[in-house]
Amino acid sequence: MEAEKMDENEWRYHGEGNKSLVVSHRQRCVVLRFLKFPLNRNKTPEEIFHHLQNIVHFCKHIMKQFFGENYVHHGEVVQLPLDFVKQLCLKIQSERPESRCDKDMDTFSGYAMCLPNLTRLHFVEHRPIICIEIKPKCGFLPFSSYVSQEIKYKVCRYCMHQHLKVAKGKWKRLSKYCPLDLFSGNKQRMHFALTSLLQEAQNNLKIFKNGELIYGCKNNVDSPSDLNELAHHLKPFFFPSNGLVGGPHCTRTILKELIHVITMTLLSSTDNCKAGDMKTVPSSQGWSYCEASAFNKELVRNGKNKMESSGLPRECLLYKTLQAQMLDMLDIEGIYPLYSRIEQYLEEFPKERNMLQIDGPYNESFYEKLLDLSSEDDGTVAYALTKVQQYRVAMTAKDCSIMIALSPCQQDECSAERPVVLTSKSRFTFSVSVLDLDLKPYESIPHQYKLDGKIVSYYLKNTQAKDDSVMSSLLKENEDCTLVLHKINTEIPLRPS
């Protein structure tokens, strides 16, 4: 990226997370990612470069091993003219949501990450493109013996966390989406999960058209999304020339096609996307249902037996994601004591932190330790460190995003080298990628431990309160419906003669 080609007017605000801010180029299929810091607390350029390089190396040498070469785009660290960075910061400041302005974009180091813009397909730059971004979250129930609350074996973390988020005002309504339905591999359950995401996107679903956000949560503001407007945007992609009329029927038909396409691409598997030699983490069909899932509740309500999970194709991205997530074999309740063991060791030997590779380097040695799935604690720091690092990688996989980019193509235009998905009236060439693969911070483990306790205790308290309310209502109804029996005269009076 040459300095003379840096024009801040060609870049636009693309979004941001807790630690970074992203801008995308209007013409080229690239994005720049800048670090953010709390106000008046900046790192040195050398520290920023090292931090960004660590992110690149972690994606390149670790996460590619789990997900496969074609799914992970690690990018590269670039150095930019400081004048350009400062002007760009001024340009986009007004577009940033107020809730994000407690942190400054890094305008002092000149370093940023240059990545491909995954809302576009780099091999079809001049064609219309829709892109669906899904943050699937954790797709299994914990199986650790360290779990202290029985409810965690029955209800998934996402469904429990929904109650706490609504109570705190983060969202106005509970979502019917359950990650276990999406990860089931059963198309009916997957369709239900995707429909639920469309109805209540929160920050788990976004849809882009030619790089522009057209559906989903904007700037983390919970505002109602218009499915009819979304269908209007998507109609030319799915029904290019059939003259389908507008209205609810049209919207339902288009969204049904969209859900079908997303499902097929998520289940797609290609031989050239094989992951590394990671051993499969053991799983059980008994963990495939969440009791809080709206789909599961509907089955129970209708008196049906639970639907068997069809299972995910071993080479699809959902399967790879789930396998990486299941490196969390001990749950945070089993990890926190191991974290405390490491902390106690570092208090005695602070200079050993680098040797333990807590902050990298993320190389082959780091990856090989992740493959040790033994669960017998020998009391050593080495065992504790292995499990903590596995947990951090698992948490990264639980919080990643999957990007599905689709572009319409005619039968004679589609290359045999590109995967294709068919609908009733269209065909699409597509790519599936995974992003947001920064390793979760070692220092965040105490926070995760406390948050886990809050989520579970609030869910138990909230559901118990609802159960008590329902029971109270039933009792009241019974009181209102009490039959009062009165004695009546059974003698039949004689009729006068």
Features:
12 strands; Inositol-pentakisphosphate 2-kinase; single chain; alpha+beta; six-stranded antiparallel β-sheet; 497 residues; 13 helices; disordered C terminus
Provide structural commentary.
This protein has 497 residues and is an alpha+beta fold. The chain is built from 13 helices and twelve strands. It has helices spanning 45-67, 82-93, 157-167, 179-182, 187-199, 227-238, 248-266, 294-301, 317-325, 331-348, 364-370, 381-398, 445-480, and strands at 11-16, 20-25, 30-38, 76-79, 103-105, 111-116, 130-134, 205-209, 212-216, 401-408, 420-422, 427-435. The strands form two sheets. Strands 1, 2, 3, 4, 5 and 6 form a six-stranded antiparallel β-sheet that branches. A six-stranded antiparallel β-sheet has the order 9-8-7-10-12-11. Strand 2 (20-25) and strand 3 form a beta hairpin. Helix 5 (187-199) crosses helix 7 (248-266), helix 6 (227-238) packs across helix 7 (248-266) and helix 10 (331-348) packs antiparallel against helix 13 (445-480). The termini are far apart.
Give the arrangement of secondary structure elements:
Blueprint: E1 11-16, E2 20-25, E3 30-38, H1 45-67, E4 76-79, H2 82-93, E5 103-105, E6 111-116, E7 130-134, H3 157-167, H4 179-182, H5 187-199, E8 205-209, E9 212-216, H6 227-238, H7 248-266, H8 294-301, H9 317-325, H10 331-348, H11 364-370, H12 381-398, E10 401-408, E11 420-422, E12 427-435, H13 445-480
Antiparallel strand pairs: 1-2, 2-3, 3-5, 3-6, 4-6, 7-8, 7-10, 8-9, 10-12, 11-12
